[in-house]
Amino acid sequence: MKIIEDKIAPNPRRVRIFLAEKGIEVPFEQLDIMKEEHRSVEFTNLNLAQRIPVLVLDNGEVISESIAICRYFEALQPEPALMGTGPDEIGRIEMWQRRLEFLLLAPIANVLRHTNPAMAALEQPQVAEWGEVNRPKVTAFLEILDNELAGRAFMAGDAFSVADITALVAVDFMRVIRMKLDGYENLQRWHGEVSARPSAKA
Q1: Average pLDDT over residues 30-37
Q2: Which CA distances in Å does 78 have to 3, 85, 90?
């Protein structure tokens, strides 16, 4: 079993934090997406979408997509539960995980990939106007999150979950588009707490 990743990218970090929270150790193999190594024939045969990370199981089966990989390990080792227990909690965590993925992490990535000339080879076509359209989307969702966190400790309730992992990675990734949490008191409190967890350094 191994995970193929590029450690500088945000999605592999989600998996590393998840595994660290579980106390699961898996070998990692690095490739360089800036050198377009994810477009090699060898890697494309593993993942036609040419995206990282990829989990290669001992039987040769391949699982891609960060949350799919996390679900595999959640099923393999249910405790500590990071995706919820019971239908209400599972549904609530999944709701916030998807919101954070699509309404925060994705817009941040769009700003970077469409406005940074260094990313041109990875994003074709690169449309600067689309990148800038996503910047206010980030701000709008940060305001929603700040209001939500006035009433609870974590993204999906009173317990740390995969939703917090996605949120942490997204907020930390904001640095690449020069955005900060200034003025978001509740988000700053949350960010300080989750950043202090040992898994945040994974």
Answers
A1: 95
A2: 20, 9, 13
